[in-house]
Structures are given as structure tokens and as C-alpha cells.
Amino acid sequence: MARDAAPLDALDAIALQEVRIGDDLRHLELYTMRGLLTVLWHGDEDAEDVVLAFGGAMGGVLGPANGIYHDLGERLWAEHGIATMRIGYRRPNDLDRCTHDVLAAADLAGRKGAQRFVTMGHSFGGAVAVRAGIALHRHVAGVVTLSTQSAGCEQAELLGKTPLLLVHGERDELLPPFVSETVRMIAGHGELVLLPDDGHLLDRSPGQLRQLLAQWIPEQFAACASSS
For the chain, is the Cβ count within 10 Å smaller at the N or the C terminus? Predict the structure, then answer.
């Protein structure tokens, strides 16, 4: 495969299976020789605005805060026509491969009509969100990190003026909140939201976090669309 192959083509997928599991939710599996890439896709496949959401070093497609990715996927589509792709990595904790997985999902959505993306990752996935945001460049409307690590975010300044939201629990037992502060310093900008008394999984502030993201994400898509 050529070095400049599109991310989806570079997966060298052997097969793709898809099943509809709800009126506005599809389950996709892309089989490759280097692992299985899973996507739960909320909304129509030709949506112009798409959230790319993914987990931490252990993978997963539900997200923190008691399954926030599923809830946001339903709400953003119902209220704003924003699609969400919940991405299950082929090989969790492999930063390069996980970033490739996210870009492959974006490539798939782009071939269907997507124009703008918000990347969102938890813990290890925060670094994936930053790296994917950099790679998507002018197509990225915003980047969200939830309880992020700093490893892998060393080039966050390359996000340029891309809106950046960093959310962290003040009592994170794995990654203290100064980690998000460090990433914001590297990026040179960003909105840092600290959740009092919350830990790494952000499960003590589920309502507050859902409301924050349900407002912030549509705002970034709207701003990006108006400036293009």
C-alpha cells in the first residue's frame, strides 16, 4: 500500500459487515489482518457534521460518565442532525494505530458526505483526539479531551486555532488535572473545565458533562460552517 493511501484504503480491509440496530443507529465491523475495527454510527451516513468518539487505553465504545457517547449520539442527532461515530480500536493503547482508526472512520464518513468533524476521546483517547484533530486540519471543527493524558499531545500547538475543550475531574485518581492544564499550555489555548469531586471516569457529574457537550459541540459545528 502506498504511503499516501487514504486512511480507509490503508486499512486493507478484508470485509465489511453492517447491521441496523435501531432507527438511527448502525453497527459496522471492518475486518483487517491487523484487527477488527468497530463503528457504532448514530444518524444518517450522509450527515455533514460528525462527532468521532472513542475510548481510552482499554478501548470501548460507551465512553466515560456512564455511557455518555451513546447518549450524546442519540441527542445530537435528534436535536441538531449531528451524526456520531463511536469507534472501537483495532488495537487499544497503540497510539499510531488508534489514530489511524479514527482517521479511517472520518474517511468513511467523508466519502458519504461529511464535511466537518469533532474528535472526542477519554484518557489515552485524549491524545488520539488531539492527533486526529491535527491530521484532519481544516475539516476539524473542534477537539474534546476527557481526563486526557499528556503523552501523545506533544504537538498540540499544531491544532492552531481549532477550538479545544479539556474536561478533567479534580479528584482524578489516575491522571491529575494538571495534565489537562499541560496540554492546554502546549496548545496555546483551550477551555479547561474542572469537575469538582469527580474522578477519572467522570461518573459523578454525568448530567453536567452531558449538558456541556450537548451545547459546546453544536456551537463549534455552527461556527465552522459559517466560516467556510
Answer: N
